[in-house]
């Protein structure tokens, strides 16, 4: 069984567990370091590309290049 708990690592050691580790005996552990986001991204606004994207009026018209197959 795999269990994930969160803690804080600083200066070569885990300084604080955010949860209590479930193991009462010697167990093998794997530690994954997650980089903290330093800058929060602004949410995208809908419609910010309005007027930038267009299609020809004959977009759905059959292509002459494919007339042999149709």
- Ends distance: 57 Å
Average pLDDT figure: 82
Number of strands: 2
**Count, helices:** 0
- For the biggest β-sheet, the strand order reads 1-2
Q: Topology as H/E string?
A: EE
Fraction of residues in helices? under 10%
> What share of residues are in beta strands?
5-15%
Poorly predicted runs of 5 or more residues: none
Describe the protein's architecture and organization.
The protein has 70 residues and is an all-beta fold. It contains no helices and two strands. Strands 1-2 form a two-stranded antiparallel sheet. β1 and β2 form a beta hairpin. It starts with 6 loop residues before the first strand and ends in a 53-residue tail after the last strand. The model has no long low-confidence stretch (mean pLDDT 82).
What's this, in brief?
The chain is mainly beta. It contains no helices and two strands.
Topology:
Blueprint: E1 7-10, E2 13-17
Antiparallel strand pairs: 1-2
Keywords:
13% strand, mainly beta, two-stranded antiparallel ribbon, single chain, elongated
